[in-house]
Design goal:
This protein is mainly β. It is built from two helices and 33 strands. The strands form eight sheets. A seven-stranded mixed β-sheet has the order 18-19-20-21-26-25-32, with no helix packed on it. It has a four-stranded antiparallel β-sheet with strand order 2-3-4-5, with no helix packed on it. It has a four-stranded antiparallel β-sheet with strand order 6-7-8-9, with no helix packed on it. The longest helix has 10 residues, at about 435-445. The relative contact order is 0.11.
C-alpha cells in the first residue's frame, strides 16, 4: 500500500503561546495550553515537560541551561496574576520565589545571577542567588506591554562572562539607555579543573562615557546585544532599518535595510563571534547580514559608488542582506511521505508565520575545517528549521535578488568569504546523487539552505 501522497487531517493543531532560546541557544522553552517544555536546540530533543493545571502561561524564560525558569501567567485563564514573576526550579518542580509588582509585567531579561523586569515606564533589576535582592530601578519611555498574550517588553542583557551591559529604552522616544551592572560571572566548569587558568576579568572602566544612544526618531520595537555587550542592535516602528551601535562610544557602526515597505521586526540575533546578524519580521523572511568592516557579502545598490559624488537618497547607499529564507506556511494536514523531510522553500509561502531565530555551532568534521554556524528557526505553529548559510562564490543571476529585496539596482560586494562545505546531510538514499547540485545551490544562491525540518510543541511524540 502506497501512502506517499496521502494525507490525514490534523485534528489537534499545535498551539504555542511562546517559545524562546536561552542566552547560548543550547536549549529553548515552549509554552502551550497544557504547560511548558524544555528542548535541546540541536539535535532537537525533548528534555523535560511540565503539564500544569489550573491555568496557562504567557512565557517560560530559561536562565542559560540551569533548572531555573522565570514564569509569567497569561492567556484567557492565567495560572499566575499578570503582575507577578514566578521563579521556578524545574528539577524540584516547585516555586522558589515570586516577585509582585503594582502593574502588568511586560518582559524579562536574565543572565547568571541577575534578572531585569520591564514594566510600563520603568525597568527593575534584581540580583538572584539564595535570595532575591532588588538592586536598581530605571525610568524609561512607554515600553510596550503584553499584547494578546505575547510578551513585548523591550530590554536586552549581555550574558557573556564578565559582561556588564543592560540595554533598555531611554526616557525619550527612540533612545537607548545603557546601564552597567556588576560583571557577569563565568559558567562553572564541569568535571576536573582545566589545565589552563581561567580568563581574568577585563579591567573595569571607572566611568562609562556613553549612557544614551539616540537610535531612532520613532519608537523602538526591539533591542538586542552581543554576549560581550560590545554591540547593540536597534529597530523602530517603521521596520525597514536595523542599526548596529558600538556601546563604548555610541557611534553607528552599521545600518542595514531589511526592505522598503513597513514591517514589524520580531527580533535580531547576533552570532556569538559577532561577525553576522540575523533579522526576522512579520513578512515571514529571515535575513542575514555581515558585520565585517568591509561589509562582507552584503548587497548594495549598483548606484552606491556614486553616492560620494551625487546627492543620491540614502536608500541607494544602504546595505541589504546577503542571504534570506522564507518560512513556508504550515499546511493544515500532516503529509505522510517516504522521500525526505526537507521542504522546498518555494512552496506554501506564508506572509505572517511568526518565528524565533537563534545561532548554533555545528562541530567540524575534521580538525582542519572550521566550525560552521547555522540558524535554528522556531515557528509558533510548531515548525523547527535548521538552516545553513550559502557558500560565497560567483553569483549566477543578480536579477533574482530583486524579488526578495525589492530593489532592482543590486550588486554583490567584491569581498567574499571562505566557508567549509561540510554540512550534515538529511537526504534519503535516492537523493544522495544530488550532492553536487546542492553545493552549487549553496555557492550560487542567495537563499539559506534548509538542512532539516521537524515538529515540536506536542507531548505525543513530535520532537
Amino acid at each position: 500500500m502506497n501512502l506517499a501522497r496521502r494525507s490525514i487531517t490534523q485534528t489537534n493543531p499545535v498551539q504555542i503561546f511562546n517559545t524562546q532560546f536561552d542566552a547560548d541557544c543550547q536549549i529553548f522553552t515552549t509554552v502551550t495550553p497544557v504547560g511548558f517544555a524544555v528542548y535541546q536546540a540541536w539535535p532537537l530533543k525533548l528534555l523535560r515537560k511540565r503539564e500544569l493545571s489550573g491555568g496557562t502561561l504567557a512565557a517560560a524564560v530559561p536562565c542559560h541551561t540551569s533548572s531555573l525558569l522565570f514564569l509569567l501567567g497569561g492567556g484567557r485563564s492565567p495560572l499566575y496574576p499578570p503582575n507577578k514573576v514566578i521563579l521556578w526550579d524545574d528539577v524540584a518542580g516547585v516555586e522558589v520565589a515570586e516577585l509582585e509588582f503594582r502593574e502588568k509585567v511586560g518582559g524579562l531579561a536574565c543572565r547568571r545571577g541577575w534578572l531585569a523586569v520591564a514594566l510600563r515606564r520603568r525597568v527593575v533589576v534584581f540580583e538572584v542567588h539564595e535570595t532575591v535582592v532588588r538592586r536598581g530601578e530605571y525610568d524609561t519611555c512607554d515600553n510596550p506591554r503584553a499584547i494578546q498574550g505575547v510578551v513585548k517588553g523591550i530590554l536586552a542583557m549581555a550574558t557573556g562572562p564578565f559582561a556588564t551591559l543592560l540595554a533598555i529604552p531611554g526616557r525619550q522616544m527612540g533612545h537607548v539607555q545603557l546601564v552597567q551592572l556588576p560583571p557577569c560571572r563565568p559558567p562553572e566548569p564541569l568535571g576536573p579543573p582545566p589545565p589552563l587558568r581561567p580568563a581574568k576579568p577585563p579591567t573595569s572602566m571607572t566611568r562609562h562615557p556613553v549612557s544614551i544612544i539616540a537610535a531612532h526618531e520613532s519608537p523602538l520595537t526591539t533591542l538586542s546585544v552581543t554576549p560581550s555587550g560590545r554591540l547593540v542592535a536597534t529597530t523602530s516602528l517603521r521596520g525597514t532599518l536595523v542599526r548596529i551601535w558600538e556601546t563604548s562610544n555610541g557611534k553607528l557602526l552599521k545600518e542595514f535595510r531589511r526592505g522598503s515597505d513597513k514591517a514589524e521586526i520580531y527580533g535580531v540575533a547576533f552570532r556569538s563571534d559577532e561577525k553576522e546578524v540575523a533579522v526576522w519580521s512579520d513578512k515571514g523572511t529571515i535575513h542575514v547580514f555581515s558585520l565585517t568592516p568591509a561589509g562582507g557579502s552584503n548587497r548594495q545598490s549598483s548606484l552606491s559608488p556614486l553616492a560620494p559624488f551625487l546627492p543620491l537618497p540614502k536608500y541607494f547607499d544602504s546595505q541589504w542582506s546577503y542571504a534570506q529564507y522564507r518560512i513556508p506556511a504550515q499546511a493544515a494536514h500532516i503529509s505522510l511521505s517516504s522521500t525526505s523531510s526537507v521542504r522546498s522553500p518555494a512552496t506554501d509561502l506564508a506572509a505572517d508565520e511568526k518565528c524565533v531565530v537563534g545561532w548554533i555551532k555545528i562541530p567540524a568534521e575534521t580538525e582542519e575545517s572550521p566550525q560552521e554556524y547555522q540558524l535554528i528557526a522556531l515557528t509558533y505553529s510548531g515548525g523547527w528549521y535548521r538552516l545553513s548559510l550559502p557558500l560565497k562564490g560567483p553569483l549566477s543571476n543578480l536579477s533574482d535578488a530583486s524579488t526578495v529585496s525589492q530593489d532592482p539596482y543590486y550588486k554583490a560586494s567584491s569581498t567574499s568569504r571562505q566557508r567549509t562545505s561540510s554540512v550534515s546531510s538529511i537526504s534519503s538514499a535516492p537523493e544522495k546523487g544530488k550532492g553536487k547540485e546542492r553545493d552549487k545551490e549553496r555557492r550560487d544562491g542567495r537563499d539559506l539552505i534548509l538542512e532539516e525540518y521537524r515538529k515540536y510543541g506536542r507531548w505525543d511524540g513530535w520532537g
